[in-house]
Amino acid sequence: MKLIGMMDSPYVRRTAISLALYGISFDSLKLSVFSDYQEFSGFNPSVKAPTLLTDDGVRLVDSSLILQYFETLAGAEKKLLPTAPAALARDTEILGTILIAAEKTVQYVYEHRLRPEEKQYQPWVERVTGQLLQACRVWESQIAGHVPSDNPDQVAVTGTVVWSFIQLMIPQVVMKSEFPVLQAIAEHYEAQPVFLRFPQ
């Protein structure tokens, strides 16, 4: 099994850490959708990260879909999401907020790093920034009172990976001092072996 993509992508990294927690063995092929475009296209012509190739030759894309598949296969002791409907709805709500923050961070970064400054559309930048900050405020409130454990679930995995990505890419936009709960939880989980195994 091969997981293709760079660990500086929160989508690739959340997939890698989750697979490890599921007990799934895989090879990590660290190919960039930018600098390794041609080589990446040999595994997935659409050049989408993460791409996962199963041992049966099935190509899976999109981190949420990949993780949904392996969550279905996982035994009760390995599941990263609750099975009770109310608890699952709650975790899904939080994950939705986290993934909004990830998406808006990527949009902000692409706007500033890939588009020439004279072609950047300031109203769009302001809108994306506002959405990102609001998502982080909602996220902070959703997990207030959460006590980190030694057994991360999917909310912990995705939340830690996305928060670390935000702080890596745009700490001047989303200041950690304004989100102490998110920062404390991420620091706790980033120190665990499974997170250290897949640094961003």
State the share of residues found in helices, binned by percent.
55-70%
Total helices: the number is 8
Q: What is the rounded distance between the termini?
A: 21 Å
Radius of gyration computed on alpha carbons = 17 Å
Quote the beta fraction.
Answer: 5-15%
Largest β sheet strand count, sense and barrel closure: 4 strands, mixed
Provide the structure class: alpha+beta
Q: Care to count the β-strands? A: 4
Chain-averaged pLDDT: 97
- Overall tally of structural domains: 2
CATH class membership of the largest domain: Mainly Alpha
The CATH architecture classification of the largest domain is Up-down Bundle
Helix-strand pattern: EHEHEEHHHHHH
What overall geometry do the principal axes of the alpha carbons give? globular
**Which fold name corresponds to the CATH topology of the largest domain?**
Glutathione S-transferase Yfyf (Class Pi), Chain A, domain 2
Strand order of the largest sheet: 2-1-3-4
| Uncertain regions spanning at least 5 consecutive residues | none
Domain GST N-terminal: 1-78
GO molecular function: glutathione transferase activity; maleylacetoacetate isomerase activity
Pfam families: GST_N_3
Protein name: S-transferase
Description:
- One of its GO terms (molecular function) is glutathione transferase activity.
- Residues 1-78 form the GST N-terminal domain.
- InterPro entries: Glutathione_S-Trfase_N, Thioredoxin-like_sf.
- The protein is of the alpha+beta class and 200 residues long.
- It folds into 2 domains: 2-73, Glutaredoxin (3-Layer(aba) Sandwich), CATH 3.40.30.10; 85-197, Up-down Bundle (Glutathione S-transferase Yfyf (Class Pi), Chain A, domain 2).
- It contains 8 helices and 4 strands.
- The chain has helices spanning 10-22, 37-41, 63-73, 85-113, 122-142, 154-169, 180-190, 193-196, and strands at residues 2-4, 27-29, 51-53, 59-61.
- It has a 4-stranded mixed sheet with strand order 2-1-3-4, with helices on one face.
- α6 (154-169) crosses α7 (180-190).
- The model has no long low-confidence stretch (mean pLDDT 97).
